[in-house]
Amino acid sequence: MNCQLASDSIFYQNALYRFIYDTAGTLVPCSFSHVIAGLTIMLMLVNSVLLGAALVTWLERRLLGRLHNRIGPNRWGPFGLLQPIADLVKLITKEDLVPSGADRIIFTAVPLVMMVPLVLMTAVIPFAQDTMLADLNIGVLFILAVSSATTIGIFMAGWSSNNRYALFGAARSVAVLISYEVPVVISLLGVVMISGSMSLNDIVHAQSIPFLLVQPIALFVFVTGMSAELNRTPFDIAEAESEIIAGYHTEYSGIKFALIFATETGAMLVVSAVIATLFLGGWNGPLEDFLGWFWFLLKTLAIIFVFIWVRATYPRLRLDQIMALSWKFLLPLSLINLAITAVEVFLLRDASGHLSLADLWIMAAINIPMAILLILLMGGLFQKKINSLPVRTETPMVPGVPTIEVK
Amino acid sequence: MYGLGMARGLLVTLKNMTKKPFTIQYPEERVKQHPRFRGEEFVWYEERCTGCASCAKYCPLGIIKIVTSPSESAPKEGDKYKLEVFDIELQRCMFCGLCVEACPYDCLFMGSGFEQGRYSREDMVIHVEDLRNSAKNPSTFYRPQLEQSGYDPRGGRPLSWREVGREKWDWHKREKAGLRLIETDIDSPSEESR
User: Do A69 and B19 lie within an 8 Å CB cutoff?
Assistant: First the structure.
């Protein structure tokens, strides 16, 4: 009874954990306090992901409607706010089908395999000052590793469905993931170099100005790469409705489909939170001791709006265009950004390896014009390559069979 | 330039946020309907109909079924037939309006409604009683005389059989008085028109 969290505990930096631990310590034996504190925060995180996913579904449909000069769902509840509940009730009451010839165990495990990494990602995101489930010192690496694990679920779905469209979708998704993981990881290296830590909380502490200004190229590459990894428009070839029905979740119905759908929108929410943490300064803002959660939510919503805005605007890219965008545009861009940042950090840091506020402003002054110049320049180069479609030659090599030749 | 085009595309969708949505919330709001709209519930004036069955002959789908019998008075030349059956199978009707164009006596009109959803296929067949009892709000489709009078079927008053013809009532009276009219109706309209 009446036990306090030891100051050498790995959870000591975590304000919310410490608060719940100390409160529970006055009521139950000390051995239970860790269990209670951990379970409470986990419950909060899981529910915030699921409820947040439902709200993001509503937000996405409403905003898509407004961006397309429509209204969006508005019949059920004020502004259609109860629409996710109506969707959920519909999906729960639908028949839960498993196709014949499907691998039942793997088929059933897929929603879980997709949902768990998503919830795990939220564990390291600081949603207020010094408040997260676990302040891992390899937070960025953890997020990159865990976010890729969802693709295993996608491939399991495609392989176990006994449906060729599902397999096509899964294969496309894996191809996209392999291409985009490289520039995404390299772009994050710049952020890690500047802040000198991989812990997300330390990165937020290091952002005396948002890294949006210091690392604009990294933000661009990260947003693009993440929207490709989330299979969002314009990179949604894994579930392209007009090409392969619904991609990997073609055969899913009922509550399984609801979970997969919640994973997709929830992934957007969590990735937006990560971007807000890494590039927009997370809970930094006026009155951050009390309003940290508000600034964090505001920045997350801003990133979500960008994702929805991009989805409302651009048409779907072809597979070869997506590959070209990754390997010919984003990868060189992120490599150049890495080199520039490395030189800047090497020249500007003081003896203890830290960067002052003035150093960050100098870097911003160099990097923002550099970003605009590089994106326009390399976009021009990219444009020439993307137009080289296959052309039919005049004389067929085999009589009667027209030859396809790439110019 | 490539990147600028992408940015311009983003601006196009962002501008839509400031505009009023184009959506018209149907049950509460309605689009203004053109008077020529070809709707369901055909408007039929029994007083003008002779039972010639031109509409049934011209229907490309053959969904109009007409059975007539000689009227009680002895069938003289130009006398009208009595309609036993006048069935229109709306479930296959494509609202081309050829039956209305074919009608030589201006007695069949397209309707102006479009909310006639039914729960069974049997209900989709319009019978002669339904035609007799339906609201007389004829569409102005292929009826220039209605269009010139500025008649609007949506919200306009129902028209009686004397108001919808190509010619004035006096013309009918002079040229073909009584020939295709029900006997009880012969006297009253002429008195009204004076």
Answer: yes
